[in-house]
Amino acid sequence: MSGPVSLTRHLIEAQRAGHIEPDLRLLIEVVARACKSISVAVGRGALGGVLGDAVSAAGGDSVNVQGEAQKKLDVLSNEILLEANAWGGHLAACASEEMEHCQPIPDAYPRGAYLLLFDPLDGSSNIDVNVSVGTIFSVLRCPENVETVGDEHFLQPGTAQVAAGYCVYGPQTTLVLTIGQGTHAFTLDREQGAFVQTRSDIRIPGETREFAINMSNQRHWEPAMQGYVSELLAGREGPRGKDFNMRWVASMVADVHRILTRGGIFIYPWDRKDPGKPGKLRLMYEANPMAMLVEQAGGAATDGRGRILDIAPTTLHQRVPVFLGSKAEVEVATRQHCEHDAAHAGATTA
Ligand code: AHM
Ligand code: MG
Question: Does residue 348 register a pLDDT over 70?
Fold first, then answer.
């Protein structure tokens, strides 16, 4: 039987092939349904009264656990994902960028085997200006024999993810998913209300001439980062011998989506603006799921020194530098950072 492959059919076939359990299929379907609701809310924008800053119970600006101002759509998207996932029996707990601690499934409902992490609305600074935003999610297995699920049960390396994905709300709403069997894209058919597979087994070109970085932070970067980007900017006349183009949407979902479509390198490095923070992006629900999607598409993802998916997390909202995309380019950037470290290793200890 040929014809369009819906997300449901893709997942049922994956289940039949033994790649996923029924509960994981249900979980992904539920997340996809929540993303459809978020897509509707994002699409209505001002008509739905959802633009602008969220207001706290006390009447002031609402701020999340990371100290960042929350938008109305951040809060709404978080509620949509929590509500959709509460009662299906597939989850043990959810954790979110917008909540300090994980939220176990209410006692009124059966508890499942999985843990879900999400950034409900990534790229919040772009909401009010009608630029693409998205939802990022990561699925882990809950350790066995756990009585009360806590934040510590989420602290597993990215290699333990059983599924990861994002949904980008742009001119099209597109869900990009991996269950460890390649990376596949599903476009929302708005008339049918169904996600339909539009790309299968995505491959990121190994080489690239395009980079994505917030250049306004340049003066705050460490020397290895300064050196790497100055070589890109030197273009054809420089050591790289080719001209590079630059793009920065400031929504990770949109920048990663471009890289999954035509290649490139996305970098959010450590910088001295806030030296106490090891990076801007969060490991558990931004870097890890994107790293799995990118690796499954033949790309690479590091923190500038080592593989992101190998990092052993210590806190739920831990931050990390991110270098991901076309494999050869990520390797160049990572090698230059490691070589810089090696060359200066004696300097700090001497
Ligand atoms: P958010 O999850 O609060 O929206 O923050 C993450 C976003 C990423 O989508 C994007 O890559 C980055 O922050 C943009 O940061 P900047 O505004 O510093 O360029
Ligand atoms: Mg985010």
Answer: no
* Measured distance CA(195)–CA(190) in Å, rounded: 9
Locate tokens 């929504």: which residue? 251
Q: What is the mean pLDDT of residues 293-322?
A: 98
pLDDT tens, residue by residue, 244-269: 999 999 999 999 999 999 999 999 99
Ligand minimally distant from the alpha carbon of residue 69: 1
**Residue 130 corresponds to which amino acid?**
N
Pick the more confident residue, 125 or 335.
335
Ligand 2 centre and the CA of 235: distance in Å?
31
Closest ligand 1 atom to Cα of 68: 3
343: CB partners within 8 A, 6+ apart: none
Identify each DSSP E strand in the chain by its residue range: 91-96, 103-104, 114-122, 133-141, 163-169, 173-178, 183-189, 194-199, 210-212, 245-246, 265-268, 281-282, 300-302, 319-320, 322-325
Ligand of minimum distance to the alpha carbon of 266: 1
Cα 113 from Cα 228, distance rounded (Å): 43
Nearest ligand to residue 251 Cα: 1
* Residues counted in the chain: 350
Nearest alpha carbon, ligand 1 atom 14: 250
Q: Are strands 103-104 and 91-96 parallel, antiparallel or unpaired?
A: antiparallel
Strands 114-122 and 91-96: parallel
Query: pLDDT tens across 132-183, in order?
Result: 999 999 999 999 999 899 999 999 999 999 999 999 999 999 999 999 999 9
Which of the listed residues 75, 122, 220 should we mutate to test ligand 1's pocket, taking the one with most ligand atoms within 8 A of CB? 122
Q: What mean pLDDT do residues 207-223 have?
A: 97
Q: Whose CA is nearest to atom 16 of ligand 1?
A: 250
Q: Is 247 in the pocket of ligand 1 (CB under 6 A)?
A: no
What domains sit in the chain, N to C, each tagged with a CATH number? 7-199 (3.30.540.10), 210-349 (3.40.190.80)
